Amino acid sequence: MIPLEYYVALSALLFVIGGVGFLVRRNALVALMSIEVMLNAANLALVAFNRWRFEHVDARAYAGQDHTGQVFAFFVIAAEAAEVAVGLAIVLSLYRLRRTVRTDEADLLKN
Amino acid sequence: MSTSLIYFWACAATAVLGGLSVVVAKNPIRGAMGLLMLIVSVAGLFLPLHAQFLAAIQLIVYAGAIVVLFLFVIMLLGPSASTPVDRRGTFVRAASGGLFALAGGAFWVILARAVGTGGPAAPDPSFGGIDAVGSVLFTDALVPFELSSGLLMVAVVGAVAVARGRQGKRSMSESELEVARTSVPLPDPADKGTGVFSHEIDDRDAGGHAR
Amino acid sequence: MPSLFPVNDYALIAVILGMPLLGAFVNGVWGKRLGEPAVKLMALAAIGTSFLASVVTFFALKGTVAADGEAKLVWSAWEWMHTTGGKNGVSVPIDVRFSIDQLSGVMMLIITGVGFLIHVYATSYMAKDEGYARFFAYMNLFVFSMLVLVLADSLPLLFVGWEGVGLCSYLLIGFWYQTSANAEAGKKAFIANRIGDFGLLCAMFLLVRYTGALDWHGISNGAASLLNPGEGARVHVWPLGGGQYTGLLHFLQPKSPVTISAATAVTLALLLGCTGKSAQIPLYVWLPDAMAGPTPVSALIHAATMVTAGVYLICRLSFVFVLSPFTMMVIAVVGAATALLAATIAAVQNDIKKVLAYSTVSQLGFMFLGVGVGAFTAGFFHVFTHAFFKACLFLGAGSVIHAMHARIHDGNASQDVRNMGGLRKWMPLTHWTFAAATLAIIGLPFTSGFFSKDEILYRAYVDHTVNPMPGLASRPHGGVFEPPQWLGPVLYWVAWTAATLTAFYMVRLYLLTFWGEFKGWVVGRPSMLGWPAHHGGAKGEHHEEDLSQPGYAPHESPWQMTVPLIVLATFSLGAGVLNPGFGIERQPMEHWLEPVFHAASEKAVLFGHGNDAVWAADMMWKLAAISFLAFAIGTAIAWWMYIPSRGEPARRMAEASPGLYRLVLDKWRIDELYEATVLAAVDSLAETSAWVDQAIVDGLFARLTTLLVGISGTLLRAFQNGVVHVYAAFMVAGLAAIGWFFTVPHPAATVVDAGNDDYVVTAAPGIGYAYRWDADGDGRWDHEGFEQGDTTLKLHVEPGKTMLVRLEVQNAFGLVRAKKIHVVARPQAPISSL
Amino acid sequence: MESPETPVFSHEDRASWQARLAVIAVVAALAALAARMSHEAVPVLGAVLIAALVPRQHGWTVRVPLAAMAGLLALFVVRMWPDVAEVADATATSPEGGHILSWMIALPILGALAVLVLPRQAEGAQRGLTLVVMLTTLGMSLKLLSVSMGRGFHFDENVAWIPRFGIHYHVAVDGISLWLLILTTVITPIATYASFGSIHARIKEWCFSLLVLQCGMLGSFVAMDLFLFYVFWELMLIPMYVMIGVWGGSSRIKSAIKFFLYTMFGSVLMLGAILYLAYDYARVSGGPPSFDYFELQRVLLPLHVQGWLWAGFTLAFVIKVPMFPLHTWLPDAHTEAPTAGSVILAAVMLKMGTYGYLRFSMGLFPEMSAAWAPNLAGVAVLGGIIYGALCAWKQDDAKRLIAYSSVAHLGYVMLGLFALTAASIEGSVIQMVNHGVSTGMLFLLFGVIYDRRHTRQLNDFGGLARPMPVYAALFVVATLASIGVPGTNGFVGEFMIITGTFASNMLGHFNGVQATGAAIGVILGAIYMLMVVQKMFFGPVSEKNAKQHDLTARELLSVAPLAMLIFIIGLFPNVFLSQIKGAAARVKDDFDSRIENNPPPMFYEGPTKLMPRRPEAPQPATAAAAPH
Description:
heterotetramer; B: 211 residues; mainly alpha; Four Helix Bundle (Hemerythrin (Met), subunit A); D: 628 residues; two-stranded antiparallel sheet; 22 helices; 4 strands; 70% helix
């Protein structure tokens, strides 16, 4: 069986990649996509712990507690979908205004 | 080396590759493809973790909807979707990236230490299945479920409102005009935009009110 | 009668006090609607019944006192309030209790008697004044307050009367409030009295702290504790706060703190109060200005009753004053000095009321001198006689001013002696009564003034006050303060000069007013030409008369004014018989007041030269002769100066030293001195504090903070440069910092007292922390490795012992930080539930 | 003070004045007869008769209410007269039912909502409703007098509000807060009734904010749960801010914001302290945290912790009092506030600071209060009494002058609290009520002249005594009370505070200096108040002042009860002190029991400890009490 550290290490790595991507890249679209990467990493960790918790913790506060991680991941996906929709809409309106997606240009809120 | 280990390493490799391509790719479409690869490999990883329902959802929603949406937008924007290479502020970005990586690593060490070792034993087959997660979804997690439906509705309405732009009577407000005029380098007319909006740009030039 | 009014619930006092209050209320509220005759009837009825009740009470008192000297007629109305006092903070009740003993009996008679006469006088003096009802309301209120002051059985209730009288004098001095000068004089009087009240307030809190009581009986019982040796009865004067200060400037503090005995502190505070009310040296400046009020006011308040309140208080608390010979000396010196100072000023004043005002201040100086040397009876007897002849002088002056007012309407000019002269032809009654009172005040033998003043002079020379409890009050270094032997004679000669000056200025005033030819206006039948001008003028209109035109001669005052004059004149001549002194054994006043003062003077007041009675006896006749000499010299000089040589010498002396004359005419410029020093200091302090409040305190807390907020706002705006990446960078930096903070090991522990001597030490939790304890503090860790779960430690520590516990924390990355923790178990004193 | 046109009485009027005097004689005889029959009837009968006869120009619409007021007050004094055998100080708090306190708090809020419902045009209805609600609250508050307070807490209601955080709806009244409650329920209707004469814009919002303000004030006086206290403390702030900001003078916005920020700054620190204390209690007691005052009194904190908490609470109250350095918001707030706003702000809201210090700072942290008592007493005397009086003397704006005089008066109150002897605590509690009455009356009187002349500069007035004699007489009465002339209420408080200060051993060796400084305040008080009277009433009357008409019926009726109260508290203070005596003694004993074990210099440094509940504390809320 694959020990939990592997999954946790993988999700940490993916998370870091997504984070660096968001911070380094100047392109708004890439920023949105790197957020997706980070969220996927989070989902992976959630599911991994949900699986690991099944044996190690026997206290059941309520019946459906076994699948908390998965349900949580499910809602992360839902939130992600909403977030992307709005994000892309903003990128579009930015593009219409400034005809670029470089984040440096979007500085209307300057001081 | 059991097959599951190999399977895990394969999915992990594709996932990391996908992630890197999202970040590194010059052309956003390659980035989107990398994202697709990442999502599929993560869905794959869900299967050994007994999260079949979630893997399915991942494939449908993520791969099916979100990546497609990305592609759709990228197509809309055309070439200006890819930003020219720009050396300014690299130090700030590199520093923040490095710091972030360091924080990620430290976080992993703590998490690993808190978690302790030992691999998971095989639970009964119904664990993670559609009926188990479904029943939880509609009993204990009912309120978040209904709320997320509301969230999605809001997101859609928001997206439409933001992206709809100004088909209505009002042209760009004074401040937007002024800002647009000042800071954006005028694209030379020869550079015909290939994006879907390109027609709109030309019309405005013709209409004259945008300038 | 006694059956109707039992001694300890003497309800007749309610009538004595109630009637003036009722009069004041009725006149004050309904005066306008009742009309002048009703107001007059109400006022006179109120004071009249109060006087009759006083006479009845006096005889009842005579009966009870005959049986037991210490008896008092007591009436207690209700419990007023209570405060904390005495050694161990016991609750001291203060209730509205009135008591009459011999002293307050006599004062009661003076107040209501002289008060009634002055009210009769005032009904015609103030006849045409538009504030008629308001005037009598205030006069009745004044008599009520004065009675409360005199009949009170405790110091706070006396204080009620004390401030009430001050308030009434404020209202009456500023009675004609249209001219702001009068209102200003009223305000000055009230504030000067208020400074005196400050003294009384301090005396009260000292008394209640040291003697644990505020009523006369309680104070006399606790008076001993005012002087007991050791730290108990010492009042720290300097350094403030008992020398605890050990900071930078501690070398400024004297080695042993300056302390005075509680008795001296109390008596000095009381003295400040008395000087405020009885217009002595430091606080006398308000009395001359108080002449701005109507003349009956001056007569009642500033001659007969209110100003004697100070002397009454000293007599009432004689058993406390006597405990501090230092204060007795101060009183005597203040009295003598005031007498001399006021006499010098009076000698040159030209305003008839100003002269009488300064003469009052001077006579009060004599009373203070008498009381200061321990001759309480002599001092009080002078109060008794002074009330009569000074009231008579003031009323006489009032009737003269009344006459002058017929044609000279200006307030000051109608009082100026230089416009008068030769009035004896037209105002015989006023003239004879004024003359009688003058003879009394200057001390013509066998008049009341002679007996009382002479007794004071004699006792000033002979008496020597000493501390009645010498053994007790030994100050840490050396014996009790004793006034020097030479003090007596010095006081005598100062008082003697003052007496001579008194004789001089009183005779001068009398001669200038009533002798010589009339300098007011040409007396004769008013010519027809001037007719409309004179009679057309309505009473209120102040146009200047053309004095060159002949006008009617000043006419004699109506009977309401002259009858009181006559009564007062007879009393001022005959009152001396009550306490003649000079070795005559029948001393009715002395015998009457003996029970009140014997507590004070039996051991404290001795004759000079080691209590040598024989020396004192033969000195009496010598001193009597010398004091008669004072009367003779003063009268002769005045007579010579103003009748044969028509005031020439006075004018020549004035030209000879104009500077000195101007100085004395301006009252030694004491007012200006106060203006320059005390008032200027307080005024500048007020200016600076108002400026400080506006600029610094408000500036610091209000304007500075707004400035800081503004500046920091502009600074932080610089960071908003619009670039998303910079924001992201800040976010990551924040994340890293928090991450670092949470992962770095913070060894902290809190100790909880879990009851019956065992304590639970819990280490602070953290992400990925592992702990290692050294419970018994022996330097070796309990066990080598770090455990994550090992966060609490239970200890049992006996009271009084201190346990040392060490804790070491290791975080996720192996960084280790150690910490020592003390667990202190203090002596477990039983914390009582209540 | 009589008006100029005195009718000159000729002789044929002699018959009329004799008739009048006969009437007076008959009345006096009647009263004497009644006295013999029953002691009760006399004062009431006398008061009613006198009050009915006093006003001159006013008809019966003024005489009857005046007579009613006088009769009620006389009845109050006679009925509340403390019988000599003071009932044994009942430590056990008898659980009086009836939820009086809850109704007293709820009624104004319900009234406020009801006012909102009324249509905007129906101003008469809004005014009527507000007054009715306030008067019923006053009626209910008089029920509190039926129980003799003694040492304990009465009308106690304790219901769990948010059990998880240990927050209870716990209200109770004791000797200290009784008179402050009644002062609130008396002053607010008076201020409201007077304000209807001068406030004509936005009546609905005005009535709403007044009612909410009253609810806030009543609530904070009775709240025995720190959280509940904080809620009412903040609730009180908003309506006052609105009243200053909307109906104020020229630069009202600036002063309103200044007032709000000053108080808010203090109360935020207090909130922090409350939360720490509650959770420290949880940590020590192991159970859920508790905000109940009596539970938190059990917590014995180590010195440094108690120092910070005490500082948090005390800063909030010092700003509210206001004491020296933090008082500059008061003059601005008063100059800009409308008359009624000033009256309520001065009469009741300033007492929140002093009451809060006595109840919470001294109740919860006795050791620190004892340690800081000498220093703060110095600030109270130098910064408050003397500095306040000197500043007041130099003001030429009337309301600023009264504001600084309030700083001086409250310097006395705080000095009484720092001195901590039985007399000085009683003195400061009664002085809080006195200051409310006398300063409230002064503000009402300034409102009268402000409505006529629309100027606050003292130099613009002069010689008002001639055209307005009744106004002058009432102003002099208020001045006497403010100066502290014996026989009026000011003296009672000042005398007890000064004697209590000297007899205190809590002030190090400074009690002598503090008491003398406080006594000097008496002189300064006379100086600046007489300066005001001099400038306003005496001297030649300027032409603008000559034709001012005297007090209208509304003004006379709103000032009369305060004038009567001045003399009632002045002459019969024992009626009030007998209720306060028990509570003051309890505060002193609580203090001594804590201070004996660790006198100020040698402080308790051990771990936090829980001590047994105080005997006078009412029963803790039974956990099972179902939340309402």
